[in-house]
From TrEMBL:
InterPro entries: 23S_rRNA-intervening_sequence, 23S_rRNA_IVS_sf. This is Four helix bundle protein. CDD domains: 23S_rRNA_IVP_like (cd16377). SUPFAM superfamilies: IVS-encoded protein-like (SSF158446).
Length: 121
């Protein structure tokens, strides 16, 4: 097994890039909303990155698959927070659509990963 193999995975790189965008985005939010909304948004988007990395270090495909599933759950959680922020008019429709498209691509990559893992088992 290649140690730290996740560093070369496109889905990891894309998730990291998405997280960086979230960090830049939240800097623009009013301070009074940072704890409730922003803290959760940062945690859920970082969870995508971290679960991909953590799963890559597991010794079995079954364990890797579980972490990929958790990352996919974090994709959904992140999108839900973004949807709430859009409804509260903290995000424009264009910002939301751009972020949703990126999450859709990450989710598709994770789904492809799960399919690959199942085929190997």
């Amino acid at each position: 097994m290649n140690k730290f193999r996740f560093l070369n995975w496109k889905v990891y790189k894309d998730s990291k890039s998405f997280f960086r965008q979230i960090i830049l985005l939240v800097k623009e939010f009013p301070k009074e909303y940072r704890f409730e909304f922003i803290s959760q948004l940062i945690r859920s988007s970082l969870s995508i990155v971290l679960n991909i990395a953590e799963g890559s270090g597991k010794n079995s495909d079954k364990e890797l698959n579980r972490y990929i599933s958790i990352a996919m759950g974090s994709v959904n959680e992140t999108l839900a927070i973004l949807d709430v922020l859009r409804d509260c008019q903290f995000l424009t429709e264009a910002q939301f659509n751009n972020l949703q498209q990126q999450l859709d691509q990450i989710d598709s990559q994770l789904g492809g990963f799960k399919k690959q893992i199942r085929q190997r088992s």
